[in-house]
Amino acid sequence: MTDRIRPLLAGNWKMNGTRASLDQIKAIAEGVKAPLSEKIDTLLCPPATLLYVATALCDDSPLAIGAQDCHSLVSGAHTGDISAAMIADCFGTHVIVGHSERRRNHAESDALVRAKAEAALTAELTTIICIGETADERDQGQTLDVLKRQLAASTPDGAASETTVIAYEPVWAIGTGKVPTSADVEEAHAFIRRELVARFGGDGEKFRLLYGGSVSGANAADLLAVANVNGLLVGGQSLKAADFLAIYSAFERQFA
Ligand SMILES: O=C(CO)COP(=O)(O)O
User: Which residues does the annotation say bind substrate (predicted)?
Assistant: First the structure.
């Protein structure tokens, strides 16, 4: 069943990118062409400052544009925050919530991540919910316990495979060049799949599960060959069009 899931290649620019980077977005938008774009979805999440202009740039491209975070409320006295409705207003179609950098740097709890995901669903954004263990948790053999807790507590009851994507990002793999073994990724993704099926029944089989953490053109094909890996969430290697498109090519080999 999982082999019919439409794969997703997503880039997260984090706090990188200025107007000078718009040529990279344009090059990515031009690079994600048919026929592969008919089989896989592509998404780029630039910083909020570039959101509106990026969606305009990608008007004629299959490349979707999304945001990296949203507030749980629609509007109000929340200096510095942006709402899911504002992202939709800029023609953004996706939002990442619960990234480990937000969980760590902004003390975001599972309950808050869930509230953000609910807000995103209300705004009709596709929501990418990130989960993943730290190095300490992994060393203590707690990986699956952490994934179970984060997944259960961060995912809204109203989530569905059409609207919600789960990204497994081991914290120790992000920006470090360290990547888990295929066996470890397979175990984590199989576990997440089982948990989703236990909660959402047959629809749990259809959720897209992304792997993220030090993905590059060199390791993308191996990661995509792992069972229950339905796409990738890419940080550093999404900033330059050439790097991102090299990862896109790996999708071509796996899914075309
Ligand atoms: O955090 C990530 C994507 O959300 C991964 O970042 P890197 O690909 O730079 O390790």
Answer: 12-14, 175, 214, 235-236
